[in-house]
Amino acid sequence: MMTLFDKEYVLNTYINDVAKEGREEGIVIGREEGSILTTIKMCKEFGVSLADAIKRISNEFNLSEGEAEAKVKSCWGQ
Predict the structure, then answer these.
(1) Could you tell me which residues come within 8 angstroms of residue 71 by beta carbon, excluding any fewer than 6 positions away?
(2) Can you give the residue ranges of every domain in the chain?
(3) pLDDT in tens, 23-35
(4) Model's pTM, two decimal places?
(5) Are 72 and 54 a contacting pair, CB within 8 Å?
(6) Phi-psi bin for 48: left (phi > 0), alpha (psi -120 to 50), beta?
(7) Are 50 and 72 in contact (CB under 8 A)?
(8) 8 A C-beta contact, residue 53 and residue 74
(9) Residue among 47, 54, 52 nearest 75 (CA)
């Protein structure tokens, strides 16, 4: 019986492609989280109120008020 593709090669290629996509997605998420953290720190440094910082993060990064509040409050005390 003749095989058109080497099964191991196909599997390894698929695994490498999935891993690459995962790394790229992780990089994008990491950059966004870093941007959020930097914005929160700048808000705090420039005396922006907690409520205004939450609104700013929500608007700037298209997050719900609840998501923004959780992120801001987790970083605000640091």
Answers:
(1) 36, 40, 57, 63
(2) 38-78
(3) 899 998 899 999 9
(4) 0.73
(5) yes
(6) beta
(7) yes
(8) no
(9) 54
